Structure formats: structure tokens, C-alpha cells
Amino acid sequence: MILAMAKLRIMGPRQLLPEVLNVVQDTGLLHVAPVTPDAHLAPLSSTPKQLRLRRYLRRGLADIEVLQSKLGKPQRPTAASQSVSNGQIARWCRLARRTRREAERLDARIATGEEERTLIVKYRGLFATFQDLSIPSARWELCRAYHVLLQAGQEEVIGRLREHLTRVIGTEFELRTHRLPSGESAMLILVPAESAERVDRLLAESRVQDIPVPSRYQGATLTEAMPQMLERLEVIPGEVAALTAERSRLLRTASPELLRAQAVFHDLSQRLEAIPLSAVTERAFVLEGWVPLAAVPRVENRLAHEVGDLIAVERVEAADWAGEAAPVVLRNPRLFRPFELLIQLLPLPRYGTIDPTPYLAVFFPMFFGLMLGDLGYGLMLAALSLILRHRSSPGTTRRAVSEIAGACAAFTVIFGLAFGEFFGDLGHRWFGLRPLLFDRAEAIVPFLALVLALGVVHILLGLCLGVAGAFKEHKRQAIGKGLSAVMISLIVISLLAVTEVLPRQLLTPTVTALVIAFPILVVVEGLVAPVELVSTLGNILSYARIMALGTASVMLAIVANQMSGALGSVAVGVVFALLFHLVNFALGLFSPTIHALRLHYVEFFGRFYSPGGVRYQPLGHWRPPADHPALERS
Amino acid sequence: MNPVLVTLSAAIAVGIPALATAWAQSRIGPAAAASLAEKPELSTTAIILLAIPETMTILGFVVAVLIILRGGL
User: Fold this and answer.
1) In this structure, are A462 and A591 located in the same domain?
2) Chain A closest CA to B55's CA: distance in Å?
3) Which of A193, A214, A346, A516 can bridge A116 by disulfide, Cβ–Cβ 3.0-4.6 Å?
4) B47 with A594: Cβ contact below 8 A
5) Residue B72 in contact with partner chain A when CB distance is under 8 A
6) How sure is the predictor about A219, in pLDDT bands with cuts at 50, 70 and 90?
7) Looking at the predicted structure, is the pLDDT value of residue A526 above 90?
8) What is the reported pLDDT for A625?
9) Domain boundary, last residue among A236, A271, A305
């Protein structure tokens, strides 16, 4: 359900606004909303000093966040201090900026060292070859050497390059090549220094690249740099380790102070951002916001206790804010709460509409179980869910996923028993497991009938929720949805009567009722109503996917079992069968999840869901994201 | 009924929608990937959009099953 909210209006002398904001932040319950200005109330603009401070804090926070990402592991926040001087804020900002610059400088040096090391290691094998090729030429006093590595199959480049060089600088060059065991070719080109510029251009045009020499040896050729590079290979790991240690020391030293700064900056930013949302008269301020209905006395008492009777807190009548977008808090029983995660993948429902979490919590695992429906796979999923649960802490996304997986596993086991499946037909072969309901591999039509019946129930439930949701504000729409629900029921009864599942005598009254209901529907909903009705019937047929995926899953499991006897060697067959089961299990986790979600998001929610809710974000003290993986086990 | 015709009809019933689904998904996939690069929060919408054309194949499969059952195979 969506938690009931109350709108509070806090009024008092203008000079008390900062103190009130402090108390509101300590309470952490008021979602501050902009006050609508009128003839007596003017919006309170931030002063240039406050705007400057906000910019300053934003920059400081950006620096701290960069440093935290470098530190890797977020830490628990420290309590924000209320009394921090501007001088302290400036010191923290300078510390954050200085530490960030220093950390970035160290990172750049570490990266350069690693890059140099990688390059030397990569070309170390080539050095010997190039040294053999690099016997100095006696032809020129000053010569320039180009070192090129050609991939296997690029040998034609050598001949082409020789021709181009002859055309550009005549015979004044030496081109030496050596084929490496890897199939690549090392090529050394020696030219007189005065021709180097023209050869540079030629190589660039021919897209032949000289092996890059690390920037430290700028100006030297690879041959000249080689001995130094090999020496550096011994030194670099030590240098990188020293730089890494220096970086860790820097971050560790600054971290406690910056963590405190982060909490203070966040809190101060939030208070500064709340100021322009309030409105003022010449002497008084007005602050408005939403609080969960049950928490109103706490906010009132805290303000009365800490600020005194100079301020007034009043509850705005619900009728006065009916059209406004109140923030949304989903609050469901413990059993359903993990499924709020699946609702949060969509935009939140609007305040005052229906929270679909309880329905999703029932139908999602049921559809999943119907599709996977295998005792063995269900037990595997239960084991996975338990492992995930063990490795997560309460209130985190991982914990919610583990609990959703647990519910899905339970339904998979139940339907596995109903369909008599344990890794396909293995249960039947090993211990004579028999279906309690029907065998999915054989009874395709009963399975189809079952899922379509479930589709009818699901869609009718959606239409009923649509009626309930629209009844208060959009009566005409509610009547239209109600009529659609009635017509869907009538169509289903007529079809059952035609196929003699229900008594044939029902056919005439249901068809008559349909003929009467149809024009009423068109009058109420307009010409689009018949299209909507057909689309709803299409949506019911869409539930056939449960049967299609379920049948595919059991067939794949049966094929996996047949592999053990079909590949000659039993051992090879068993290995293949296990692999095939593993693939089927992986598919069985992915496809049913996507399709069960789709059936909810598109077919079911389409009947009643009203997105566009505003997330409840009370003005409070800063906390880092609760479910950061690094925090989960701490 | 001729089993060859029944089998062929069932294959066409599921094959053509499968090709149509593949074509639709080949258009949706790159568009979704491009959107995700800009707005990663659209991942749920992208997955749902990719799953929507599969309805055609699933309905084709159901029709194929009905053809085979009615055809007496």
C-alpha cells in the first residue's frame, strides 16, 4: 500500500527559519515542498552568498566523491556537526581539492609506469632481433632507424615499402627484415638523417607505424632506448609499488576528515536547497512539506520542544492539496516487501492510486513457478537463494533478490510436484514420480487452458483494480472499465458454453447480455472502447507464453536426460546431460523472469497502474547508499 | 489429413512469426542499446520492449500446436 501522507505548514518569525530547518533536518521526516506564493507571500530567494556557498559545497562534494571512488570502499558516515564555521568548510574544500590533485598525479604516474612496463614486456622478445638487425651502417655518419613490427600475412608491405622508399629517396636506405617464430616480421629501416622527414611522411601515408618508444626516452630510437628499457624493467615494479603505497597513505590520512566533511557538506547543501522552497512576508516565513500521517505528532512535538511556541505548525486540509503530487512511500507487509524492488524498476505509482506490490508478490512467483515447474530446478534455485541470502544484509537489494528467488523457488517446487517433474522425466524414471495435476510434456491443451484461465483471472483483477482506482475521480472511466470486465466475463462464459464446458443453455443469455452491453460501452468510453476490448482479449491470449515457455523447459530437460544414453559412452553422455541441464536451468531463470515481469508490467498494470509518483525524500542527515556491495557484509 | 501438409502448416505457423519477431527485435535491440548508453535507467523498459514482439512467436507456437493436434499427428 501507499503510505498516507499529511501536509504540514510551518510558520514563524523570519529569523527562526535556519533554526527550524536544522530541527526539521534532525527529525528527518519532512519532504519539503515549494510554497505557492500569493499576494502576501513571496518566494525566498537564495542570497548571492548562499549561492556561492552552494557552488563551493558542490565542488567540494565532487572532489570527495572522486576520492572515495579511488579509495574503493565506502565507509560509514560520521554524524554531521551542526556548528561548523565557514573557515572549517573552506579548509575542508582546500583539503579535498589538494588531495584529489595529488591522488590524480600519483594515479597518472602509476599508469605511466604500468604502461611502460607492459610495452617493454611486450617487445622484450623483439629487442634481441632488432639488436641483431641494428649493426650500424657504415654508409652514413648520422642515420635514423625505424623499427616496425608486421603482423603475419603482411609481408607484401615490405616489397611495397621498398618501392616507395626507392621512389622517394633513391637507394639511400637499408631495409632489413627478420621473420619471427610467431609468424610476425621485424623490420628495420635505416636512412640518412637528412631524409628522415620525408620517410616519416611516407610511413604515415603507408600506414606503417614505428614501434612507440615510451615518453621517458623521447628523442631516442628504439635501438638506443633498448638497454635502458631492459634496465627499467627491473626498477619499474618497485617504483609502482612505492607510488601505490604513497597513494594509499594519502587517501587513508585524508579519509576520516573528508568523510566528516562529506556529511557536513551534504547536510548543509540540503538545507541551502530547502531555503528557496519556503516563502516569506516581511517578518515571517512559511515552510511546507509532507510527512507520513503517523509521524505528524513526532514532527510537531520536536519542533515545539526545540524551537518553542514562537512557531506554528498546522496540518493542511487534505482537500486543499488533493490535486498536488504528494510524495510516495510504499509500505507493505514483510512477506511482500521484497517485491517493492520490482515496482521500483518502473516509475512510482502516483499518490492516491493503487500499489500493485501485493498482487505482484502473489502472481509473479506463481507465473515463474508455472514456467519453470520442476522439483529439481526448484531445489537448485532454493539453494542459490539461500546462498545469496547468507551473503547479504537486511534491507539491501541483494537480500530482496534472494527473497524473491526464494518465493519463486517455492512455487517452482510446488508446480514441479503438480507436473511430476524432477529434472524433466528423471523423477519418473528413478523413483516413479507421477504428476498430481497433469504431465506438461503430454497435456499441452489442458496446460494452455489453465494458463489462459489464469490470464482471465489476472486481467479481470486488473480491471477491478482499475474500477476501484478510478471510482473516486473518474466515474465514467470506472464504469467503462467495469463494463469491460463484465464483457470479458461474458465472452469467456459464451466460449465455454460453445465448447460445452459449461451448459449450452448459457449461450443465449450471455450473447444477449453482450449485445446489450456493447452499445453501452461505446456510449460510455467512445469509439475506442471496441479496440480496447479486442486488445484486452489479446492480452489474455498473451498468457499462452507461460505454456510455451513451460513446455519448452520440460522438453529441453527431457532431451538432456536422453543424452546420457545417446552418446555411446555413458560418462560423456552424463557430462553432456549435466551441461544441458545447467543451460536449461540458466534459461529457466532468465526467460520466466522476463516474461512474468512483462505479463505484469504490460498486461496487468496496463489496466489500472498510474505512474508518475514523486519519491519521498525527506530533509534529513546524509547517509551513503545503504546497499553498496562493499557495505553489505561490514 | 496429409501429415506432410499438417507438419508444413505448423512449421509455417511458428516460422513466419519467429522471423517477424527476429526482424522486430533486430530493430529494437540496437535502438535499446543506444538508449541505454545515454540513460542506463531505461534498462527495464528496454527489456520489456525487446520481449514484446515475442508474443507473435508464442501465439504462432500455440497455433502450431493446435494445427498438429487437430491434424491428428
Assistant:
1) yes
2) 6
3) A214
4) yes
5) no
6) low
7) no
8) 52
9) A236
Task: Express as a percent the part of chain B with pLDDT over 70.
Answer: 99
- Give the A window 293-352 contacts with B, CB below 8 Å: 345-346
CB contact under 8 A, B58 and A444: no
**How many separate domains does chain A show?**
2
Tell me the C-alpha distance between A441 and A559, whole Å: 12
Helix, strand, coil percent values for chain B (each to nearest 5): 90, 0, 10
Tell me: pLDDT of A629 over 50.
no
**A317 exposed, middle or buried (CB, 10 Å; 0-12, 13-18, 19+)?**
exposed
Task: Identify from B39, B55, B63, B69 which residue to disrupt to test chain A contact, counting A C-beta atoms within 10 A and taking the largest count.
Answer: B55
Domain that holds residue A434: 337-615
Q: Could you tell me if residue A510 is inside a domain?
A: yes
- Residue owning grid cell 534455485: A381
pLDDT at A631 over 50: no
Count of A–B CB contacts within 8 Å?
A: 38
What's B57's domain CATH number? 1.20.20.10
Mind telling me how many Å the CA of A231 is from chain B's nearest CA?
44
**A219 and A349, same domain (yes or no):** no
Q: Is A539 on the interface with B (CB under 8 A)?
A: no
Predicted ipTM of the assembly = 0.72
User: Contact at 8 Å (CB) between A150 and A187?
Assistant: yes
* pLDDT tens, position by position, A303-352: 888 888 888 988 888 777 776 778 998 889 999 999 999 998 888 898 88
- CA-nearest of A286, A373, A389, A384 to A551 is A373
DSSP H or E run through A143:
strand A143-150
User: What CATH number corresponds to the domain at position A202?
Assistant: 3.30.70.2750
CB contacts of A598 in chain B (<8 Å) are: 48, 51-52
| Inside any domain, residue A45 | no
User: Best of A598, A600, A602, A609 to disrupt the B interface by mutation (most B CBs within 10 Å)?
Assistant: A598
Domain count across chain B? 1
Question: Do the Cβ atoms of B48 and A544 come within 8 Å?
Answer: no
d(CA A423, CA A426): 6
